[in-house]
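Q: Predict the assembly, please.
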Amino acid sequence: MKQTISFTLNGNSVTVESHPMQPLLYALREDADAPGTKYGCGEGECGACTVILNDELVMSCLVPVVQAEGARVETIEGLANADELHAVQQAFLESGGAQCGICTPGMIMAGVHHLRHPERAPGGVPEALEGNLCRCTGYTRIFTAMKRAKEILSAGGTGS
Amino acid sequence: MPMSGEFKEKILAPLMSISTGKDLKFVGKSILRKEGIDKVTGRARYVDDVKTPGALYGKTLRSSIACGRIKKISFAPNIPWDQFTIVDARDVPYNRVLQIESDQPVLCDGVVLHREEPILLIAHEDPGLVETAIRSITVEYEREPGIFNIGEGRILKQYDIEEGDWKKEFAAAEVVFEGEYKTGAQEHVYIETNGFIACWEDECLTVHGSMQCPYYVHKALKYAFKLQDDQINVVQMTTGGGFGGKEDFPSVLAIHAALLAKKSGRTVRLIYDRAEDMASSTKRHPSISKVRTACTKDGILRAIDFSFHIDGGAYITLSPVVLSRGIVHAFGPYKWPAAKLHAQCFFTNSPPYGAFRGFGAPQSLFAIEAHMTALANHLGMDPAELRRRNFIHRGDTMPTGQVVDEDPNMEALLDRALELSDYKTKRARWKRGGGKGISLSTFMHGTGFTGSGEVYLASRVGIATTKDGGAEVRVSSTEIGQGTETVFPQIAAEALGIDISKVSFRRPETKVVPNSGPTVASRTCSVVGKLVERAAGKLKQRLAGADIRQHYAQHGEAYEEVEYVPRPGLVWDDDKYKGSAYGAYSWCVNVAEVTVDPVTAMPRVDTLTATVDVGTIINPVLAHGQMEGGIAQGIGWATCENVVLKEGLMENHHLTNYVIPTSADAARIVVEFMPSPYSEGAFGSKGVGELPMDGPGPAIVSALNDAMEAKFTHLPLLPEEMLK
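A: Predicted assembly structure:
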């Protein structure tokens, strides 16, 4: 039943032995040792498991791992470099965008994707982050963080 | 990941000095969340992130009826049951969950009292097989009719208050006005579901889990397994939200995980999926209130007759205290010459209701605040003006007998909220029924446990010197998103006179930290924080100016611990239900502005303005975060969060059909703090966490009534109801 599936995770090649229909979420968390991506609902409603797959924002609980074969997968673990946080991480930290932190990895990935492709959400940040539920902040500080991230980036901060 | 402690220092150090211009060095400043880097980099470890090679995966078989008896349990032959660990009621040393009482069984012992009640537990190392196996067990029942409506079943708890000659006031009143107000259940939707990992070693039990109150879990484990204190270690993992949902409920789960671990002799993971979590976990108590008031034609309140009824569900859990907290807040921030209150909590065959941010107060405050606005409309008066004429002041006596010994400053909070929201202009401009509405609520929330609760808790807080010349705060108060891990070091650093970067927070585990009580009741920052302040002061005294690093090198760890000391003059009589319910109250005014779509009746909360007195603000960014998040939960409760109960089952136990606000729904939330410090709270702070949950409901429903020219008196108020 299990199959060998290879993909690039945050720039590194990984190979997992997995049932092809297993959600990518579990392949990341359990087989690829990347538990930063979180389970929240398992049915694509909460966005806690959001990752970037070949430059597309996906809910990894809904993506069969076989779909990641040969793909580029980006998760929260890959954003910061050795001595600097990604602009969106830095902004969430400064602005109070993270409280309990469980939605944060997915929220930040959605934020990063939005800054790369702002044209995909004509309604701006509230629209871009609509698929990511946060129960702590009321979103106010998350909006502040996204503004701050743009400032950090335009000042030459890390983030791509 | 090449991220070391050094990385953390590098990022945090330059940012730690963000100032808000207060005199104190660390208190009042937006010090960055101590565990913030872990959270934004994905390094924070929640219970489900813990690696446990060779562990078993547990699963719970639950009742599919609400009331009756178990006749027979059959195991289908297609499953290798001999490979499974199976636990039932007979395996529990003492089959009771200890909370306030101990009426709830750990596992059903033949009798079923609610849907989704745990019957037996299974575990296996293959999680996929566990899922198949749980569906291969059949339970045959003898059904009995259940009770699902408030008032039909047995009384779980009752309180009565009578103050002044209320009968005479009603008989002589110029105006008598009455209404009935209802609130629905609410699901917490912490984004991290409940989970525990348990293992036994040499008769000693360790559990790791997601929780608010490690010592509640400790107490429940000790009781069910008949253990000694030192045989149990409860370790809190990074916890992905609580809101009350991880106050009482985790005790049940921890016992379940420990039972499977004991029987199997293996480490056991018991982590719920979302559907199981939502269907089986506690919710906010639904309520029905009848409020009758007597007043003059000018709107001066003379008397209130309040009947407050809540649904407790099938077991007691924390319901008596929820009822009690509801009662104390039922009178709002108003002066009542006479009052009568009759409060009852009823058993039903719904899953037990439990703690949820506000703990009964949002329910009773919804009733009084919706009533005040309805009364103002009845009198032809501005709802803001009616409130202004009746606010409580220093020296006034509350119907519970408490003499107000602080300045509520409700007039100032009201004036500022009206100014910030441009209330008068909008109210004049927006015609009733024109699709836009603006209304308000004025309210308060008690700091800490109700009545004599803090005295019984006798919380303890420890602080120790560390090798590197700093200090470590040791408490059982947990970080659940609200900022404990940051505000306690701020308080300790301030009191010790050392740099904030030198003060750490010990992640709670019961083997190491003293019992500073549960992380509930808006008590952590103010009440427990005061103990942190005192403990740090005591440690400072002992160090007598010595350099901590040198002191540690010479004498080893210096540790100081303090215990809660009741405030003189703060007396509560449990039997008479009279006295000072809280040492202090936080005060607040909300103004809600709404728009209703003329075609779909979809409501939108455009702006929610809050002026707030929570005493001294320890950390502005974190305090704003608490207020904004609580307000958003209040908006959800008022407009979209509808728990659909059918014979006690939450039918919509998925995030696809239980809807909470998204970023696209987010209201513009304006919060302004107007602090009046409280001498017994840490550096003058009062309770923060629950207050924001209280006000949005009534302000929004009243604003929607204006927008739609309607007279709704319940929440959630759904578009389909407004269309009728």
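Confidence is low (pLDDT under 50) at residues 14-21 of chain B. The two ends of chain B are 57 Å apart (CA to CA).
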